[in-house]
Amino acid sequence: MRPHKDISEYADLIGMQRPVSKKHPPMPRLNRAAQFAPFAALTGYEELIGETARFTSDKAELSEEERERIGRKLTELAARSAERPFVAVTHYVPDPFKEGGSYEVTRARLKKVDPQAGVLVLETGARIPFGDIRAVSEDQTAPEKY
């Protein structure tokens, strides 16, 4: 093993300027620092782990009584659609990346109930299929929110 050199051996270099190339402009400090950034050998690995850990659920099967209750409420809302009531709709949203989905609550003003297409249309442009609706009610607190 070679012994370490004494700093006095480099005394002639201490006062010297850094060499500057005549061919290449100096690299910006940010680019120089990027050379020493950590290397991610498995690009996207952290995102993949997060996606795998994210939970989804299956769409619940409604009882006949629940389907009838939702049907009655949709009929009532259809009759009042000219009033544009605010509604809160709990509905199933399929996950675009994996099997399953989740239930979300959408609050908005009702545009129309379209029985031919089988969808509830909201003024936000959302079109919620009847088969995905878990619950629907008028949103009594909505005017303050909108």
Report on this model:
This protein has helices at 11-14, 29-34, 45-53, 64-79, 142-145; strands at residues 86-94, 101-114, 119-122, 127-129, 133-138. It has 146 residues and is α+β, with helices and mostly antiparallel strands. Strand 2 and strand 3 form a beta hairpin. The radius of gyration is 32 Å and the shape is elongated. It starts with 10 loop residues before the first helix and ends with a helix.
Give the fraction of residues assigned to helices: 25-40%
Determine the N-to-C terminus distance: 77 Å
Q: Give the biggest beta sheet.
A: 5 strands, antiparallel
Could you tell me the radius of gyration in angstroms? 32 Å
Q: What is the strand arrangement across the widest sheet?
A: 4-3-2-1-5
Q: How are helices and strands ordered from N to C? A: HHHHEEEEEH
Mean pLDDT reading: 86
Beta-strand fraction estimate = 15-25%
Category by helix and strand content = alpha+beta
Low-confidence stretches: none
Q: What's the number of extended β-strand segments?
A: 5
The global form is elongated
Please give the count of helices: 5
